[in-house]
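Give me structure tokens for this 49-residue protein.
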Amino acid sequence: MGVIMNRYKISGGQAFEVLKRVSQHRNVKLREVAQEVAETGEVPGAEDR
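Here you go.
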């Protein structure tokens, strides 16, 4: 969540909502999305916006 909070200047709750939304959209576990963010520093699907 820290990567997302820092990059987008949002709160912890908002960062969790981003992770949750990506998880639901991609139909993968939230922990897998969080791991991808931690490894790459990128939010999956962020380039689609």
